[in-house]
Amino acid sequence: MSYRDTKKTTAVILILVMISTQLNATSATPPYDDQEVNVFDRMLMFPYSKDLSLVSDITQYSAFLAPASLAFAAPPSDWFGISLAYGAAAGLSFGTRTFMKMAIERNRPYMYFDCLPPTTSSLYEELIADQDDSFPSGHSIMAFTGAAFTQAVYSLRYPDSPYKQASTITAWSLAGVTAALRIASGNHFITDVLAGAAIGTLFGYGVPYLAWKVFPSWKGEKVSVAVGPAMFTMHVQL
CA angle 99-147-134, nearest 5°? Predict the structure, then answer.
């Protein structure tokens, strides 16, 4: 997929999400009324599954670490520039995720089912504390950031690498499984994961494109990055 195709696909997904997502109001007490949820998202709603949620954590981290395969394709002299570019992509993705979750309140699907853990359990308290952070899917954002970055760097820098096909297929597969598990585990709606996939793909492709297309000789030597709990800054010395 070319960068131009990626931009078009991301734009279409974001438009779909904005059109189809009716951010639900909070009912008085759980379980909430699923009629508050738009028809599109109501097609795939599931109760909470601790096991599937745990597996989605594993696939998310695996997809996020997929760019590590570039160490086999890239010479050591390129490792710093790649690491810095991925740090920028990941930082932008995580910052966007954090801001959107703070700005947008949306009940998670599991709040529409009468099968939450006992109220005296720590898991119940954890689920209730996290109940209105459904949009967007942070797991999907980070997983698709890793997948898109992996394919972008291979395509831009090492198109003939013997590791390209296996690495990109594995990365995208892990990202797709992560998105599916976030829905199946009751943590997210369809539009949550679509938005997350679009955001992650945008930064995963966008940062490498800027690094090696706009600045083709860029290796990261003149770039400094600062990351904090609520901030991400990058300084480029031209």
Answer: 35
* In contact, 150 and 69? CB cutoff 8 Å: yes
Whether residue 88 contacts residue 225, with contact meaning beta carbons closer than 8 Å, is answered with yes
Please state whether 50 falls in left (phi above 0), alpha (psi between -120 and 50) or beta. alpha
Q: What are phi and psi of 223, to 5 degrees?
A: -120, 135
- Prior bond to 31 cis, omega within 30? yes
- Tens digit of pLDDT for each residue in 179-222? 999 999 999 999 999 999 999 999 999 999 988 876 665 555 45
Please state the domain extents for the chain.
Answer: 3-19+44-236
HEC string of 81-116 equals HHHHHHHHHHHHHHHHHHHHHHHCCECCHHHHCCCC
Predicted structure pTM score = 0.82
pLDDT higher at 182 or 4: 182
Residue 140 region, left (φ>0) first, then alpha (ψ -120 to 50), else beta? alpha
238, pLDDT greater than 50: no
pLDDT (tens digit per residue) in 37-53: 999 999 999 999 999 99
How does 19-42 read in b/e, with b if 16+ C-beta sit within 10 Å?
eebeebeeeeebebeeeebbebbb
Verify cis geometry, omega within 30 degrees of 0, for the bond prior to 136: yes
Neighbours of 2 (CB within 10 A): 10
Beta-carbon contacts of 111 under 8 Å, excluding residues fewer than 6 positions away, are 30, 31, 32, 131
* Amino acid at residue number 229: P
Model confidence at 16: pLDDT above 70: no
